[in-house]
Amino acid sequence: MNDRLLRSLFPFFLSHPSPLRYKNSHHRVGEKSGGRDRRSARQRRGATVEAMGEDDEKQSEKRYISSEELRSHNTPSDLWISIQGKVYDATHWVKDHPGGELPLFNLAGQDVTDAFVAYHPGTAWSLLDRLPLVGYLSDYRVSDVSKDYRRLAADISKKGLFDKKGHITFIVLCHMCLMFAVVVYGVVCSPSEWVHLGCAVVLGFLWMQSGFLGHDSGHYRILNGPLVNRIMQVVSGNCLAGISIEWWKRNHNAHHIACNSLDFDPDVQHIPFFAVSSELFRGLTSYFYERKMSFDGVARLLVSYQHWTFYPVMCVARLNLFAQSVLLLLSNKRVRGRGQELVGLGVFWVWFPLLVSYLPSWGERVMFVVVSFAVAGIQHVQFCLNHFSSSVYVGPPRGNDWFEKQTMGTLDITCEPWMDWFHGGLQFQVEHHLFPRLPRSQLRRISPLVRELCKKHGLPYDSSSFWEANVRTIRTLRTAALQARDSANPVPKNLVWEAVNTHG
């Protein structure tokens, strides 16, 4: 890790920003880098006193802002954030934020240092100078948990783990090309129904690997260069799987920032089909979908049997991702590369129906689509296992308990290293949520460090086997289902719109 990054990360361990900080603190005043200061001691002392006097004068001009005042600037038209005790006005920068506007909207009016550390490389710190500096947080404090978290982030960066991606991307791409070739050859050239069935299974696993690759590319560059990385995102997501990578990034960033918040995290907002908590029966407002999640009569009926319908719905959950992708790209929301995204989806809806049309009968065509969707549905189950049985809460995320919320809302899946291909890094969900930029090949390596940090601060480090995680998820759904049967039955409203806007 370079000196600039070390200087950026280690000051986090202080409980208050230092009032005097020299740009080149490792040189004495008047000393040139690499040379000797030939002035007399009296001259050096005089220069030092003069410099300190200038800094004291600047210090007296600093504006200090309380956390209460910071919280009042939490709207899209008046958005302040604090990073390492410095308060910035990010109102006009929101539209240019690479991670989208939702993370900033959800954390507006708060200190967001931990989230900034999690999502940005060391080179991003210099970019903060472009934001208007409003002042300094007068009551800036760092908890012991945050100190240790930032220290661990610095250690991981010092070891270069954020840059050690390994050969996973190359291996996955080779496997995906091979699987796609097998599927096309089997469907076009073989008359056997069994071969066609096998091709449907292979296509489902191909979509799973495509999803894992898209997940990686959304968090960090899996290939060298932004252009190549962007091409890979559109090809693997839009063209090959029919899912908009920009929709996924918008959805997934909101999920990471507000992990398991019932009204801010889209990954736990599945009304009318599923409810992980009875709190959703109160008709909460989704700040992601910008609508009320009405718990009407039909929703109550569906939720009452959700522990039975969970796996069947997961088999066709892909349909909802298709719909969400199209809805976003046709909306008036800001979408990066909208034309590229639409062309990519167009490519998918050309090759996939064309491939299915080569099958000799409608029975085989239906079988092929259903089986491929069902196999890909395993990935949807994996997404749910990581969060459904974990702790949930109501309200916006808070920047001052980042570590706690990420660990309490996630569940690791224990497995042998040879099964990592099946889980695609999602098995280390706790580690991934704490360090989303870390390549999946390094997650197993830092797992003991995260476990030890959780133990030190008395925080949960939750993990289960794949089977146990399924049992826990069904138990959570069953508990909410039984509670739903005793709830009131309001007049149904807008069921079709609710169903279309349910995240799968």
UniProtKB/TrEMBL annotation:
Residue intervals passing through the bilayer: 168-188, 194-213, 309-330, 342-360
Compartments where located: Membrane
InterPro entries tied to this protein: Cyt_B5-like_heme/steroid-bd, Cyt_B5-like_heme/steroid_sf, FA_desaturase_dom, Fatty_acid_desaturase
Keyword entries, A-Z: Heme, Iron, Lipid metabolism, Membrane, Metal-binding, Oxidoreductase, Transmembrane, Transmembrane helix
CDD domains (alphabetical): Delta6-FADS-like
Biased amino acid composition, Basic and acidic residues: 28-40
Presence of keyword Isomerase: no
Annotated stretches, region: Disordered: 23-61
Gene Ontology CC terms: membrane
Membrane topology label: Multi-pass membrane protein
Family matches, as Gene3D superfamilies: Cytochrome b5-like heme/steroid binding domain
GO biological process, one term: lipid metabolic process
GO molecular-function terms, A-Z: metal ion binding; oxidoreductase activity, acting on paired donors, with oxidation of a pair of donors resulting in the reduction of molecular oxygen to two molecules of water
Assigned protein family: Belongs to the fatty acid desaturase type 1 family.
PANTHER family from the UniProt entry: DELTA 8-(E)-SPHINGOLIPID DESATURASE (PTHR19353:SF30), FATTY ACID DESATURASE 2 (PTHR19353)
Protein name listed in UniProt: Desaturase
